[in-house]
Amino acid sequence: MTVPLIVNILTFIVLLVVLSRLGRQGWSLSKKVLVGLIIGVLFGLALQIIYGENAAVLKESISWFNVVGNGYVQLLQMIVMPLVFVSILSAVARLHNASSLGKISLLTIGVLLFTTAIAALVGVFVTTLFGLSAEGLVQGAQETARLSAIQSNYAGKVADLSAPQMLLSFIPKNPFADLAGANPTSIISVVIFAAFLGVAALQLLKDDREKGERVLQAIDVLQLWVMKLVRLIMKLTPYGVLALMTKVVASSNLQDIIKLGGFVVASYLGLAIMFGVHALLLSVNGINPLRFFRKVWPVITFAFTSRSSAASIPLNVEAQTQRLGVPESIASFSASFGATIGQNGCAGLYPTMLAVMVAPTMGINPLDPVWIATLVGIVTLSSAGVAGVGGGATFAALIVLPAMGLPVTLVALLISIEPLIDMGRTALNVNGAMTAGSLTSHWLGQTDKKLLNSDEHSELAHR
């Protein structure tokens, strides 16, 4: 090890210790994560200024920082399947009435898919407004490596699937393989398997009360157990965010970001419009959007900094049940479905923008109404099963682009700005899930109006 490398590693360790000390001041998790993000950005900027983009020392330092950053991401990936499985299983088991499952699922998924379709139209609008195009984007060494990885890890598995094959891939045939994430669409298969298992538990309760009660108690214990595991991982979020932001900023090429700045601005304008759409839907249904956003703000900030819809599920459920007056069964459904189906940002806005940018290079008019209708339909359908951890947007784009007869090269060309946009996309995804839960609960007449309209402070953000 060289002296500069040792200094960088020691400085990184000191920053982790400082963040740990600050975390003992009784701060909320969202505040700790925000501080971790700020420290990571400042440290990354310092490394960028000192060493520059291509310095060997910087690259080697980042490889050590990745132990914390990528380690945290892998822990998030570890909890996704158990978390989604137990959340859906517990939600169905708590219904005590299998007929309610259909209504809740239909309304929740309906809202998620409807808002995803709107997000696709917004994507067409902002891309056209800014005149974005894939023409002129240069593929460098980093982008070439990314494209190679995409083609080997993703494209061969999902790009050639037809719509019927995609739907068929959702149906679980080996739940153990799906729990292990063996297939690109494993997460939605786990949702379906857990729902069937929950309905079976309700049937057992009806046929044999004593044994059914035992199964329901076991499900409750399993949920508490998994949630404890999730809490342990969530406590590591500030440190993971610090490491990830250090890597992003230190390895960023300012020229690339400036060159692709139009895409960043257009993306965030699209995200802002979609938050406005959520607010409008809530307002039309008699829910005060300002009060709603004030109550869910800790969840949105956590999703923004962690970049994981799945890791946000516990806070998502708590916000709905403790601040928005949504029953736990509906909250668990919307939080889990929202991390897998109809992600407005990752599966709606992003792949649509890429498609509209690439279309002119293939001699296609992106403003053709028939082409837009086809694009919106494919985006909405393919939004099912997009994993709620970093990489979901790439997965969605790799389904949409080939389905529209477009090349996937652009996915790799945007690698330098991907983290900047992914934070906003994740926040929108999670807000869409909470909006779906609130609307479903409202339509079914199960919302606790007193709790929803209360302005009392909740301990949610401190957990």
CATH-defined topology: Proton glutamate symport protein
Q: Could you estimate the helical fraction of the residues in percent?
A: over 70%
CATH class value: Mainly Alpha
Number of helices: 21
Number of domains: 1
Indicate the low-confidence ranges by residue numbers: 457-463
GO molecular function: L-cystine transmembrane transporter activity; symporter activity
Protein name: L-cystine transporter
InterPro entries: Na-dicarboxylate_symporter, Na:dicarbo_symporter_sf
Keywords: Amino-acid transport, Membrane, Transmembrane, Transmembrane helix, Transport
What this model shows, in words?
The chain is mostly helical and 463 residues long. It has a single domain (3-455), classed as Sodium:dicarboxylate symporter (Proton glutamate symport protein, Orthogonal Bundle). Helices cover 76% and strands 0% of the residues. The chain contains 21 helices and no strands. The protein has helices spanning 3-22, 29-51, 56-95, 98-129, 141-158, 163-170, 175-179, 186-207, 209-234, 237-250, 254-259, 261-284, 289-306, 313-322, 328-338, 344-358, 369-382, 392-403, 409-413, 418-443, 449-452. Helix 16 crosses helix 20 (418-443). The radius of gyration is 22 Å and the shape is globular. The two termini are 40 Å apart.
Concise overview:
The protein is mostly helical. The protein contains 21 helices and no strands.
